[in-house]
Design brief:
With 351 residues, the protein is α+β, with helices and mostly antiparallel strands. It has helices spanning 11-18, 23-49, 94-114, 163-177, 185-207, 265-268, 274-287, 295-304, 314-329, 334-345; strands spanning 6-7, 67-71, 81-85, 126-130, 139-141, 146-148, 217-218, 233-234, 243-244, 248-249.
């Protein structure tokens, strides 16, 4: 199992901000990039030398979350000062309360919808650190815990505000403990897409929304008022989440015709994830109802089924979703037709 460092804000967004002539924008972006680079290198070193095994505490009951929230107090030491434990009443810090609630919502979706006990399936405690660094413009999963920045207030707001950001990052942990998709190129884009899928499902589950009612945005509410945009990404319409004079234009493609070949961002993992994202959206909305029940079940079956290779390409993942839909819902089922058609619409051929 490889523990990777995964952030919600793509490097290309921070790169664009870092080149701004306004120091109020470029300064936080540059510091965030530097911190991300440090954390990414630290994660690789930890992977090489080995990290301590985290086991659920004896007091953690099966099928119950065990959440701990820490406060970094605007420093970078992890995990920080413990400020809320499982079962504690909400405090005055809204950021702490949102992180606690988001961890719980993620735990609940995986347990109630898929019978999964925490992100590792074995009751792994869920730890999160808030108020990380100063004006830190990101949130990340570092292979062991969640970390949230407060944003700079100019471009990004508090990273605990969108519940799908919390779900997205924790879903990287589910992938880590299951398919362990390589974080580069198409496998990396699948890794990012799976997190977007379950992040969106966690938001929809929490709000009780159907596929038709959902906005299918990732990170709605995260962008500050001055930004011309609605979110970090759109699964419904990749490439339309923002178009801003500072951030630039959302570069995500919706189909293989616009696939982006790049060496940056680990081979475009945050960019080309728009293609499998859109396929999921198409399948889920074609089926209707609650997206976590049928389309989400198919994606979960593939992620945890043991057949998905670490270096899987889009076509291999798509083929497995078709097989999973057939296995669970039957040949000739609406689910099978919707999944197969969705991949055809985004230009991914099944094998």
């Amino acid at each position: 199992m490889t523990r990777v460092f995964c952030t919600i804000v793509p490097p290309h967004v921070l790169d664009k901000l870092a080149r701004s002539e306004d120091p109020a924008l470029s300064g936080p972006a540059r510091r965030t990039l530097q911190r991300d680079a440090y954390e990414r290198t630290h994660r690789r070193l930890t992977t090489v030398i080995g990290a301590p095994t985290v086991t659920p505490p004896a007091a953690a009951a099966e099928g119950k979350p065990h959440r701990t929230i820490y406060d970094a107090q605007h420093r970078t030491g992890l995990p920080g000062k413990k400020v809320r434990d499982e079962g504690d009443e909400p405090g005055r810090d809204a950021t702490v309360n949102r992180a606690y609630a988001g961890l719980g919502a993620t735990f609940e979706l995986f347990l109630k919808a898929y019978g999964r006990d925490s992100i590792d399936g074995c009751g792994l405690p869920l730890d999160a650190t808030v108020h990380y660094d100063e004006e830190y413009n990101n949130a990340f999963w570092n292979g062991e815990q969640m970390v949230f920045g407060d944003g700079d207030g100019e471009i990004f707001l508090d990273f605990t505000l969108p519940i799908d950001v919390i779900g997205h990052e924790l879903a990287h942990g589910v992938t880590q403990y299951t398919a362990n998709l390589t974080y580069f190129g198409q496998p990396g884009a699948l890794n990012e897409s799976v997190s977007d899928v379950f992040g969106a499902l966690i938001k929809q589950y929490t709000l009780g929304q159907t596929a038709a009612e959902a906005d299918w945005l990732i990170g709605a509410g995260l962008l500050a008022p001055r930004v011309s945009g609605v979110a970090l990404r759109s699964m419904k319409a990749p490439g339309t989440a923002y178009d801003d004079d500072v951030l630039g234009k959302d570069p995500q493609p919706a189909t293989m015709d616009a696939y982006v070949r790049t060496g940056r961002d680990n081979g475009g993992v945050h960019i080309n994830s728009g293609i499998p994202n859109h396929a999921f959206y198409l399948a889920a909305t074609a089926l209707g109802g609650h997206a976590w029940e049928r389309a989400g079940q198919v994606w979960y079956d593939v992620l945890t089924g043991g057949e998905l290779k670490e270096d899987a390409m889009f076509a291999e993942f798509a083929t497995l979703t078709v097989s999973a839909a057939k296995a669970r819902f039957g040949d000739g089922s609406d689910e099978l037709r919707a999944v197969a058609k969705a991949w055809e619409q985004v230009g991914v051929r099944t094998l």
